[in-house]
Amino acid sequence: MYSPNTTLKPTPIILGIESSCDETAAAVICGRKLLSSEIISSATEQAKYGGVVPEIASRAHTEAVDEVVRRALKTANVSAKQLDAVAVTYGAGLLGALLVGLSFAKGLACSLNIPLIGVNHIRGHLAAAYLVDENLKPPFVTLLASGGHTAVLYTESYLSFRDLGGTCDDAAGEAFDKVARILGLDYPGGANVERLARGGENVVKLPSALVKNSSRLQFSYSGLKTAVINAVHNAEQRGESINYADVACSFQHAAVDPLVKKTVECAKNLGVDAVTAGGGVIANGYLRDSLTKACQKAGLRCVLPEKRFCTDNAAMIAAEGLTQYRAGNFAPLSINACARIPLV
Predict the structure, then answer these.
(1) Could you read off the pLDDT of 209-219 as tens digits, one per residue?
(2) Taking each helix axis from N to C terminus, what angle separates 172-182 and 222-237, rounded to the nearest 10 degrees?
(3) Do the strands 161-167 and 217-219 form a parallel or antiparallel pair, or are they unpaired?
(4) What are the structural domains, with CATH classification, of the chain?
(5) Are 86 and 116 in contact (CB under 8 A)?
(6) Verdict on whether the full-model pTM lies above 0.90
């Protein structure tokens, strides 16, 4: 019977494994110090189909998971026997993809008789900030912006979050990807929209993503996406030329500016001194610059993960694994993968 040694160490060595989408990743941390972060991606293969194909992702994870873990351990100069816990994403994500990483983590934890930690992928994104500043402590306000979620959160403690507001329909990352398709850009869409926007100007009239006259803080990206479609199609129907770079730039402003403004406002209203961010959209250069400048103007500390830790990676999973390890929140071997789990 699996009965792991649960004697907690002050500075544990934790292996993180991530396989929720198209990145097979592994990372090793010692306390909050990152020792390694390795990724084997199937993005090039997925790009042939214009997006992630679940079956291809699952097969790629199966082929890569053992190798990526070996690389992470080698780079960290850590043997498997030195590990104190294995943290792994159990949701949210593609079920088949999640099961590959989860099954591998279960087997490894069981064979080493060490704790298994199930990590909420979204909490992993939020924990990425701890990789930047080892001394970062709650409370602070966090902007979450990814392909599946968009929210402003009050991080009350390492384990407790309060939802201050978020999207009422599409997520910001989803909107970036859909706009990329409208503009004929390749996968991954978000990065290509940002690249195109650098050559454009904010001159196309588009609605703000902020929902006005709402009783709570809300954003809407479905309407913004539709406005971009209409702007492009109406110009085409009238036989007018349209500058796609201007469309991309205008969309980026409409999508990002309200997020930055409201995140800073929430931080000031709550009296915290720091703002953090997590999720794939936080890799967007315009968002990073805008949020940094807005925080500086408001006298707030802005803690942003490196761009490589904004997109899917195992370092953030290990970081959240450390939080759960210290709380003694370990998972049984019966833990199952979940395509959808609560935001926080």
Answers:
(1) 999 988 899 99
(2) 10
(3) parallel
(4) 13-128+310-326 (3.30.420.40), 138-304 (3.30.420.40)
(5) yes
(6) yes
